[in-house]
């Protein structure tokens, strides 16, 4: 297969903000210790991540220690500490991460009346004031890079949101994170919101997307937001995160890579390293690998369909727009009850076993068409035993290696 050539000089550079270690790690069952967070932070840095959110230092000793460790080991990626709009949170973040130019803080702002009334029990004016005071405090204590993460921004009142952003800009905020916290938006809605925010916050103020996948629109909303004028996308590795998860790093990077011309975008992500980093994450968190998830799914680049296998054996591009090799993955062709003669013809040829069409038909009938239910799907380990068992039942001996179905 011809690999896509990537022109690093073309397209608008989209910065990638990874929140795996904060929003991803806070989801149920995903807890990491400080040394694990450091290892993942270094792996994320090697992928080309621009900003790594270390965690929420004021929330626990573990997150404080994680931020300390990550701050002292990163060499190229910048790092960000999550804070509520509290001076004590900001003080703790500064103690953990320092005030060097690579350390930024993300101040949580309350964006919707729903959250103001039922969660915070404060007024709009109070919500704006606490953000402004927090920005002032952070700047006075040596922090130059300040993001305001507006929680539930997608359900915010427009007049309130504009006032919040204007006041925060005046105070010194340099980035606004427009959060679709509960996956409320569809792409058109979210794009419209980003366009409005851009009119209130012109360049060089940055706008970041932060989307959740409750309705399956996290990636689509993030891309729509970038097309509407956002500069940065917040993601997690494997899409882990609260409830249904966040925008997935691998899907975002792959889409920007493959649709570079259409989107006029590019990123600095090294696609070939993402899967090994994901495997590290799964090992640390005890995550089960999904079966059919894009890019990282166990069978994302595999098929047991005879029609698909026939096409792939002639030219992989017939059923592979996305090349597994680009992501450090391998193609898988599995023998199942849906397989056709093409895969057997390929196996015989690969193993230099001469076979007539009549014998091939007999082999097919015996091994696939009339197979028992227990042989409906064969993986790479079982396949050799299965083929040899079938051949022995036909008084044949065909020696196959484990690579007979996967290239």
Describe what this molecule looks like in 3D.
The protein is 43% helix and 14% strand. With 407 residues, the protein is α/β, with parallel strands linked by helices. It folds into two domains: 12-285, Aldolase class I (TIM Barrel, Alpha-Beta Barrel), CATH 3.20.20; 302-404, no CATH class. The strands form four sheets. An eight-stranded parallel barrel has the order 2-3-4-5-6-7-8-9, surrounded by seven helices. A two-stranded parallel ribbon has the order 1-10. The longest helix is centred in the N-terminal third of the chain and has 17 residues, at 124-140. The chain starts with 11 loop residues before the first strand and ends in a 14-residue tail after the last helix.
Key terms:
407 residues, TIM Barrel, two-stranded parallel ribbon, elongated
Which descriptor suits the 3D outline?
elongated
What is the CATH C-level name of the largest domain?
A: Alpha Beta
Order of helices and strands: EEHHEHEHEHHEHEHEHEHHEHEHEEHHEH
The description of the largest β-sheet is: 8 strands, parallel, barrel
Class based on secondary structure composition and strand pairing: alpha/beta
Q: Estimate the mean pLDDT confidence.
A: 89
**CATH topology type of the largest domain:** TIM Barrel
The largest sheet has its strands arranged as 2-3-4-5-6-7-8-9
Helix percent reads 40-55%
**CATH-level-2 architecture of the largest domain:** Alpha-Beta Barrel
Number of strands: 14
Distance N terminus to C terminus? Answer: 12 Å
